[in-house]
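F.,

This is the one I mentioned.
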C-alpha cells in the first residue's frame, strides 16, 4: 500500500494535522471494537449498558462490564498504528489526536496532545457529588463502590444521552476548522456529535483521509479511503513522509 503523492505533499507542507480515532485503531492491540461481529455490542446494544439509566438500574452489571474492559485495556499495548501516530509529531509542526477511545493507548504510545472526546476508563467519579476517584485500585475492584455521600462511583466516560466535555468539543471543532490534513482512523463514523468532526474539517478545506478496513458514512466524502489495517498503513505513511522530508 502506497500513500498518494498528494497526501505526502499535503503532509510535508502541513502546519496542523489532526488524527481522529475510534476503536479500530486499538483493534490490533487486542481491544474489542464495538460493531465488529464479536464486538462489545454484539451481545447487547450500547443503550443497555453505556448509559446512566442502565447504571442506576443495575450499577453492579455496568461496573463489571467496565472492569472487564479495563482488564483488557491494562493488558493491552499500543500497536504500530498508535506508535506511528506519535511519530508524526517529529515530522509535522503540530499534531493533535482527537479520540473517541477511552483506553489511553495514544498517551502510552507517546502522543503529547490528545483530546478524549468520550472520557477515559482510567478515571472514576461519584455520580452524586462528582468527587473524583482516580486511585488505581478502582480499576480492579469487582464490586461497584459507593462514595461517602452514598452515591455510586462510575467510570469517567461519556455515556449515551450525556454531553461531551465542553472544553474538548470547543477545542476539537476549532482545530478541525484550521487543520490542513485530518486522518479519520478506525471509526464507523456513526456516533454523534463526534462523527461530525471530519465533515467540519472537509468544509474548511482540510485534506481528509479515512483509514478503515470497511467503508463508512464518511468514505464517499473523504479525499482518500485507505482500506487497510491502521497498524499497516500509518507506519508506511510515516516512513514515506520521512523520505519526502529527506529525514530518512
Ligand atoms: C449526546 C464512551 C445528547 C463510552 C461512547 C440520532 C442521530 C444523531 C445522534 C443520535 C441519534 N440518536 C441518538 C443520538 C445520540 C447518540 C448517538 O450518536 N447515537 C448513535 C448510536 C446514533 N449520541 C450520544 O448520545 C452522545 N451524546 O448526543 O448527547 C445531548 C445533547 C444535548 C444535551 C444533552 C445531551 C454521546 C455519545 C458517546 C457515547 N459513548 N463511548 C464507552 O466506550 O463505554 S460511544 C463509542 O462508540 C465510541 O466512543 C465511539 O464514539 C462510538 C463508535 O465506535 P467506534 O469507535 O467507531 O468503533 P466501532 O466498533 O463502531 O467501529 C470500529 C471501526 O474500525 C469499524 O468501522 C471497523 O471497520 C474499523 N476497524 C476495525 N479494525 C480496524 C479498523 N480500521 C482500521 N484498522 C483496523 N485494524
Ligand atoms: Zn459522592
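My design for it:
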Amino acid at each position: 500500500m502506497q500513500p498518494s503523492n498528494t497526501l505526502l505533499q499535503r503532509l510535508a507542507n502541513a502546519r496542523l494535522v489532526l488524527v481522529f480515532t475510534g476503536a479500530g485503531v486499538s483493534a490490533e492491540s487486542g481491544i474489542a471494537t464495538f460493531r465488529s461481529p464479536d464486538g462489545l455490542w454484539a451481545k447487547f446494544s450500547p443503550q443497555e449498558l453505556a448509559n446512566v439509566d442502565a447504571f442506576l438500574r443495575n450499577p453492579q452489571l455496568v461496573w463489571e462490564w467496565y472492569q472487564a474492559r479495563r482488564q483488557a485495556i491494562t493488558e493491552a499495548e499500543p500497536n504500530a498504528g498508535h506508535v506511528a501516530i506519535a511519530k508524526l509529531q517529529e515530522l509535522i509542526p503540530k499534531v493533535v489526536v482527537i479520540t473517541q477511545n477511552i483506553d489511553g493507548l495514544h498517551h502510552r504510545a507517546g502522543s503529547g496532545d490528545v483530546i478524549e472526546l468520550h472520557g477515559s476508563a482510567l478515571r472514576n467519579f461519584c455520580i452524586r457529588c462528582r468527587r473524583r476517584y482516580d486511585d488505581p485500585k478502582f480499576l480492579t475492584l469487582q464490586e461497584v463502590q459507593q462514595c461517602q455521600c452514598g452515591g455510586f462511583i462510575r467510570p469517567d466516560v461519556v455515556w449515551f444521552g450525556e454531553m461531551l466535555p465542553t472544553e474538548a468539543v470547543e477545542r476539537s471543532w476549532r482545530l478541525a476548522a484550521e487543520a490542513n490534513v485530518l486522518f479519520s482512523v478506525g471509526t464507523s463514523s456513526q456516533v454523534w456529535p463526534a462523527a461530525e468532526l471530519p465533515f467540519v474539517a472537509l468544509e474548511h478545506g482540510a485534506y481528509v483521509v479515512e483509514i478503515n478496513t470497511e467503508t463508512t458514512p464518511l468514505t464517499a466524502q473523504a479525499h482518500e479511503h485507505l482500506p487497510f489495517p491502521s497498524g499497516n498503513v500509518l507506519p508506511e505513511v510515516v516512513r514515506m513522509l520521512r523520505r519526502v522530508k529527506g529525514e530518512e
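Residues 51 and 113 are 28 Å apart (CA to CA).

Talk soon.
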